[in-house]
Design brief:
2 domains, Arc Repressor Mutant, subunit A, Rossmann fold, 35% helix, 4-stranded antiparallel beta sheet
């Protein structure tokens, strides 16, 4: 299938749409790309809401919160990075995974997106099949682990509740993205064990991981910032990786 480009695209014919469940919000100022992305996500069984501008999207949040946001970075009168930052500051959307869409392919932009809390970054042009696969991967890795996840406590300093997707540091809620939460849960579940960056990538992202040299370091930095007084629990083992230790 041809990659999505900035030319006018003809929507594909499809049949057999499955039951819709999870809601994906797509924000892109190019109507043809917005329509094609929406059609492929709908074909994959998702509910989709389309927005040509950020104002209409933010207005929709008063009614319902999506399960995932596809955010174009180059929007008229708005910076996608600022929108991402705003979403991660809001209590109702801070745990909603965000995939950034952009024509910018510079690694600096990718790292900045990760630093602001994005879960994935897709550059244009891209294959609709790949986009759907990345959406499913992000939702899957943010949907919890098999079995009954256990509540983790480290004295009165830190408490993790996977069912509530909540982290308390000295009794106060820590603002973490879904990726940061998952990394913390991995380290906290195996206290004292050192994980290499590659092991963390494999465990959290599996075969769909984003391979960037600084991906894990960026997430760890943000995680420490979010943990405040508990930041010292995460130790950097020089030349190896990271561990959580009291």
């Amino acid at each position: 299938m041809d990659n999505i480009s900035r030319r006018k695209l003809r929507p594909p014919h499809f049949e057999g749409i499955g039951r819709m469940s999870q809601l994906i919000a797509v924000i892109d100022d190019e109507a043809d790309i917005l329509e094609l992305v929406s059609l492929h996500l709908t074909k994959a069984g998702f509910q989709v809401e389309k927005f040509l501008d950020p104002n209409s999207f933010f207005a929709s949040l008063r009614k319902k919160i999506p399960n995932l946001i596809l955010l174009d970075l180059m929007l008229p009168g708005a910076d996608g990075f600022d929108i991402c930052k705003s979403l991660k500051r809001r209590s109702e959307t801070q745990s909603v995974p965000i995939i950034m869409l952009t024509a910018k392919s510079d690694e600096t932009d990718k790292v900045l997106g990760l630093e602001l809390g994005a879960d994935d970054y897709i550059t244009k042009p891209f294959s609709p099949k790949e986009l759907v696969a990345r959406v499913k991967a992000v939702l899957r890795r943010n949907g919890g682990r098999p079995g009954e996840p256990k509540k983790i406590s480290i004295g009165r300093l830190l408490v993790m509740d996977p069912e509530k997707h909540e982290v308390l540091v000295e009794g106060r809620r820590a603002d973490l993205t879904s990726s940061e939460f998952n990394i913390l849960y991995l380290l906290a579940s195996h206290r004292g064990r050192v994980f290499t960056r590659e092991q963390i990538l494999d465990h959290i992202w599996g075969s769909e991981k984003i391979v960037l040299d600084r991906t894990i370091d960026v997430h760890i930095k943000n995680l420490r910032d979010g943990l405040g007084p508990a930041a010292g629990l995460i130790k950097n083992i020089r030349g190896v990786g990271y561990k959580l230790e009291e």
